[in-house]
Write a structure and sequence with these properties.
elongated; 5-stranded mixed β-sheet
């Protein structure tokens, strides 16, 4: 596959991630993610393969049901596509022990996706976990007062 084809697959992946129709987005994964996908930043206990991606996405949609994703930069070379992106959503469901606060929460991230034979096989994500937790802590303390 060409570098541009790989870039297009990852673009469609982020488009699916941002789709507010959860079941439609989950169904789109079959055309984008390899069944044996490796999430190099998986949560402890997260399922392996494409099921892990579905689990992760459902976790986010449950916690931040109205979230939006914006991609800022995409760089592709060989079988890798790097995307700088951000998300924002209202904390409406439990997330990693944080009860819903009703506050807007956001974070930035950089993802590196490996594409082979038209499917994403690996993903590495670096995101501002500290900033995310800090926002959740602030929102929790405000909602308790």
């Amino acid at each position: 596959m060409s570098v541009e084809s790989n870039r297009e697959i990852v673009r469609r992946y982020f488009e699916a991630w941002a789709n507010p129709d959860v079941e439609q987005a989950i169904a789109m994964l079959d055309d984008l993610v390899h069944p044996d996908f490796v999430d190099h930043a998986a949560y402890e206990g997260q399922a392996a393969g494409i099921e892990g991606v579905r689990e992760f996405w459902r976790k986010w949609w449950t916690a931040f049901a109205d979230f939006t994703v914006e991609t800022h930069d995409t760089i592709a070379e060989g079988d890798r596509v790097v995307t700088r992106w951000s998300m924002e959503g209202t904390h409406l469901g439990e997330y990693d022990g944080y009860e819903p606060t009703g506050r807007r929460i956001g974070h930035s991230a950089i993802s590196i996706d490996r594409v082979r034979d038209g499917l994403i096989t690996d993903e590495w994500i670096e995101f501002d976990l500290h900033g995310l937790i800090q926002q959740l802590e602030e929102a929790r303390s405000r909602s308790q007062t």
